[in-house]
Design goal:
Order of helices and strands of chain A: HHHHEHEHEHHEHHEH
Order of helices and strands of chain B: HEHHHEHEEHEHHHEHHEHEHEHEHH
Strand order of the largest sheet of chain B: 1-10-9-8-7-6-5-2
Structural class of chain B: alpha/beta
Strand order of the largest sheet of chain A: 2-1-3-4-5
Strand content of chain A: 5-15%
Number of strands of chain A: 5
CATH topology of the largest domain in chain A: Rossmann fold
Shape of chain A: globular
Oligomer: heterodimer
């Protein structure tokens, strides 16, 4: 990683919002706005996620990193004319459960990297969530679950999303998938995120695949 | 060595000596509904159901402990939350007790006598104790004051409180410590042998060690100082290695460890001061064949069994609804076959 990205990551982990802002402004000044953001925020958040997965960092640090990035972007790119607001749309929601920390990390990471996030909330029934995603025609739907029985009901959601090229791709995440690595395939998901910040790389990959001939 | 009772087996291993065999702790509370052919809601509505089913299951699957536990959402309910029941999973907590704009000062310390759900748990523990006496340890469960705010406030709001307003944090902790002590002591008085202190936020998977030392560690020390019985600490599948010294310093007797961790490394770090509890992967267990269950038991026994100080358990503290009976039977059989001290057979086969 670049030295500036490492400095940004360190500033995020120490929650030094002033330094984070300064580094981000520096990057946005040197490059075009979106590229500056992409070269700093995306890699820093992805590295924080990798370090959490490796047991080096805590989830509170992942969460606060995403929150600080989201706040900085809202401050530095406040209007709908920014490239951030014009990015691809991703639906996010929590199936059945109420715990929304994972969803918030996903949403912060996506917004920090230029995606538009449609937040469907938590405690959602499978059919309700499928209806919302189809109505909004989101290319990707990211769903977080906490409990195993909720994860198993993703099959209903996947079925309700239908088939064909217009079907929203289903990305899943949450504790049941961390501890059972085959579960995401068993419920029919298109991809799984081991950490909330994986959402960015997965979204980019699925969008590239959908554009491929 | 003569066969021990389950209680002798568990307390011998908690004192870091080798009992006759490695104790097995299976929390089968949810499975009791299936055992009695009841819905999960109906099952938990009457403590007699839980007692009857847990005694049957403890014997069938050869577990060395009984859990006087219904579900964690009962504590959340006592604080004013609304429990959500499903057909195939533990009753879950609904929205946080406090809405996002409600001040912390609106939380009211529950009275145990007015918490119908918690009183049912106490009735169940009393009835279990009457049935098993001192033969089988009964474990009570209390959510730690430090982790309870995830249910009271929501995880995101709690993180921001923890990091941003230490005075408010400690005000909340005062209430939560008082509640936890009251609830845990009531379970001990009803007949629980020890308290499982459920503290996921003590894990460095969720909170950095330095922050834990300034907060949750002190909360645990203060809480334990007011308890009238021993504790073991469960981290709900979170990693433990980075905080083992801290956990030992709280005075807890044992720690539930993650399946993400090297069990032998954990055992070496805990030897003589913390009993290791774990670390079978309950979620992967859903797909295990009986042969795989036996293989997993042997591996765990070989890594953590020698010298005592090890209780075989799942990594989270509750067996999921979907784990097949054959797998659980195989777990019990494997412990009987390979878990007898000295553990030469398990080590040779691991």
């Amino acid at each position: 990683m670049e030295a500036r990205t490492l400095r940004f990551e360190a500033a995020l982990l120490s929650m030094d919002r002033v330094l984070c802002r300064s580094l981000l402004q520096e990057a946005m000044g040197e490059e075009r706005q979106l590229e500056g953001i992409e070269h700093l925020l995306g890699p820093a958040l992805a590295h924080i996620g990798d370090r959490w997965e490796a047991g080096e960092l805590a989830l509170t640090q992942v969460y606060m990193g995403g929150r600080i990035c989201e706040d900085l972007l809202a401050d530095l790119c406040p209007t709908s004319s920014t490239p951030v607001a014009g990015g691809p749309r991703i639906g996010v929601g929590v199936l059945l459960d109420q715990h929304q920390l994972g969803k918030r990390i996903v949403a912060s990471s996506l917004r920090s990297c230029g995606f538009q996030v449609l937040d469907y909330g938590q405690g959602l029934e499978p059919l309700e969530l499928a209806r919302l995603a189809r109505k909004d025609q989101v290319p990707i739907l990211m769903v977080s679950v906490l409990m195993l029985n909720s994860a198993l009901r993703l099959r209903e959601l996947r079925e309700a999303l239908g088939e064909g090229p217009e079907r929203p791709r289903l990305v899943v995440g949450g504790a049941p998938f961390r501890f059972n690595p085959r579960l995401w395939q068993e419920v029919g998901a298109d991809a799984v995120g081991q950490t909330g910040v994986d959402a960015v790389a997965i979204a980019q990959r699925l969008l590239e695949e959908s554009c491929a001939p | 060595m003569c066969a021990m009772t389950s209680a002798q087996r568990v307390f011998t291993t908690l004192s870091h000596q080798e009992p006759d065999r490695v104790p097995l702790a299976l929390n089968l509370v949810l499975r009791g509904a299936r055992e009695l052919g009841l819905s999960i809601r109906d099952y938990f509505s009457d403590p007699a159901n839980v007692v009857e089913a847990q005694l049957r299951l403890q014997q069938r699957f050869r577990s060395d402990v009984l859990f006087g536990f219904f579900h964690a959402a009962l504590e959340y309910e006592a604080w004013g939350g609304e429990v959500v029941f499903t057909e195939d999973g533990p009753p879950n907590s609904g929205a946080p007790v406090l809405g996002s704009h409600q001040p912390l000062s609106s939380l009211r310390l529950p009275e145990l006598a007015a918490s119908k759900g918690l009183l049912k748990v106490l009735q169940a523990i009393e009835a279990m104790k009457a049935r098993v006496g001192d033969e089988v340890p009964i474990l009570g469960v209390a959510v730690s004051p430090y982790s309870l705010p995830v249910l009271q406030l929501g995880f995101d709001r709690y993180i921001e409180l923890l990091l941003g307003d230490r005075a408010e944090f400690w005000t909340l902790m005062e209430q939560n410590i008082a509640f936890c002590q009251s609830w845990a002591n009531a379970q001990l008085a009803a007949g629980a042998s020890a308290i499982v202190y459920f503290d996921p936020l003590a894990s460095p998977t969720l909170v950095p060690r330095s922050l834990y030392q300034d907060t949750g560690f002190q909360v645990a020390q203060r809480t334990f100082a007011g308890l009238k019985g021993p504790t073991v600490t469960l981290l709900a599948s979170g990693r433990s290695l980075g905080v083992l010294d801290d956990l030992a310093a709280t005075g807890t007797l044992g720690v539930g460890v993650s399946c993400d961790e090297d069990l032998a490394q954990i055992k070496a770090a805990c030897r003589g001061r913390l009993c290791v509890i774990g670390n079978l992967n309950g979620l992967a267990m859903v797909d295990w064949s009986p042969a795989e269950a036996e293989r997993q038991v042997k591996a765990a026994l070989a890594q953590a069994g020698p010298g005592g100080g090890f209780i075989l358990c799942d990594t989270h503290g509750e067996i999921p609804w979907w784990v097949p009976d054959d797998t659980l039977m195989a777990l019990g059989e494997a412990v009987q076959t390979w878990g007898r001290y000295p553990l030469v057979g398990a080590e040779a086969h691991a």
